[in-house]
Amino acid sequence: MHAFANPAKFLSLAKVLTPWLFWGGLALILVGAGCGLFVTPADYLQGESVRILYIHVPAAWLGMGGWTGLAIAALMQIVWRHPLAGVAGRAIAVPGALFTAICLATGSIWGRPTWGTWWEWDGRMTSMLVLLFLYFGYIALARASAEQPGGIGENGGVSRVTAIFALVGAVNLPIINRSVVWWNSLHQGPSITMRGSSIDSAILWPLGLTVIGFSLWFGAIVLMRMRSILAQNKVEARMARLAREAA
Amino acid sequence: MALKSKHQRLILVLIALVAIIGAGLLAASALKDEAAYFYVPADVKAKGFTPGKAVRLGGMVVAGSLAHAPDGVTKTFTVSDGKATVPVRFTGIAPDLFREGSGVVAEGKFDAQGTFIADNLLAKHDERYMPREMEGMSYDPKTHKVTGAAKP
Three-state SS string across A13-66, please? Predict the structure, then answer.
């Protein structure tokens, strides 16, 4: 990991990786979503509305995976002072929040015909909504740390408070995961467990494609955002140097 | 022995994380009853009920128990969790997925006789997803295996 402490080294790798992740991810998403819409059979009870699964599940996975990434970046920043950790955290937060919002929206759209309600305050839904608010908090803190003069945020990173917030917020992840097991909830229990899947394989298989596809895409978005933050830093450093030379 | 400062930070962060996760788990287990979205018939049997208090009741609609009153909009059925049963009466429009043998969450209150008067029904979907052709096959939640012949 510390080989990439040098932003130049990181940038040269990211530049190669970005198009592969982006186009590979997009291809998998299109194939998976296309098969999910037109090839797989409808569910015996839910009918056609089962197809929202192919978007809802990857969105939930990336909403929670994004926060896992924020927590790992925060650990790297606090313990090893990795110079790119804050940049990574800042780059992950917005797409993470977006996928959490997509998860909540698709779940709500599915809930209306299936359960008969747009929204209920059960454990799974409430803890997922809390995750969205945690993302908003992180984004606000990251933005505030950039405005601190002389702070770490000036180099595109995030303040230490922001990193600590990411670690504390990670407590919500096991709560989301276990919410349907610990408490009676309207949301169904886990379909895919270590013992197997209660989703029939005829319905299940495109889900793997969209989960991997969206994950690759998420990686591409994060790398693009990190590269743009680092480029911004370079521009600002050059402007500052020019201003000093002119004075 | 002097610890390297990065190791010191690592230990500090790990201790803090363990403490926070412990606090989170304690809070979650304390909330076990409060954060439950609904009560099941066994809870009602064990703890009794307060007539007129708004609660949610969840369970399976017992097969063969669903009856329609002559007024056309009132349904009566029995909700079971395998340990106890509660009779339910509902007047209104039920969701499409409401059916016998399936999960339901009823919102309403108990009357003095112990009948649950529901003013809203939510269909609870379970974790099974399968094509229409496989309907009627049985599913074992312990082994996660679907067994039984397809319907002819």
Answer: HHHHHHHHHHHHHHHHHHHHHHHHHHCCCCECCCEHHHHHHHHHHHHHHHHHHH
Q: Do B125 and A116 touch (CB under 8 A)?
A: no
What is the per-residue pLDDT across A65-114, written as a single tens digit (0 to 9) for each? 999 999 999 999 999 888 899 999 999 999 999 999 999 999 999 999 88
Q: What is the pLDDT of residue B43?
A: 86
Q: Taking CB atoms and an 8 Å limit, are B130 and A43 in contact across chains?
A: yes
Q: B89 in contact with A at a CB cutoff of 8 Å? A: no
Question: What is residue B2's predicted lDDT score, i.e. its pLDDT?
Answer: 65
Torsion, CA A63, CA A65, CA A70, CA A74, rounded to 10: 150
List, for residues A162-212, the tens digit of each pLDDT value: 999 999 999 999 989 988 888 888 898 888 887 788 888 888 999 999 999
CA-wise closest residue to B96 among A43, A115, A51, A118: A115
The answer to whether the Cβ–Cβ distance between A188 and B127 falls below 8 Å is yes
Question: B118 has which bridge partners?
Answer: B90, B108
Identify residue A190 by its one-letter amino acid code.
P
How many pairs of residues across A and B have Cβ atoms under 8 Å apart?
A: 136
User: In this structure, which topology does domain B41-124 adopt according to CATH?
Assistant: OB fold (Dihydrolipoamide Acetyltransferase, E2P) (2.40.50)
CB contact under 8 A, A79 and B58: no
> Looking at residue B152, what is its pLDDT?
35
To test the contact with chain A by mutation, choose from B37, B56, B81, B107 the residue with the greatest count of A C-beta atoms within 10 A, namely B37
The answer to whether B65 contacts chain A (CB < 8 Å) is: no
Mind listing the pLDDT tens digit for each residue in A34-69?
Answer: 999 999 888 888 888 889 999 999 999 999 999 999
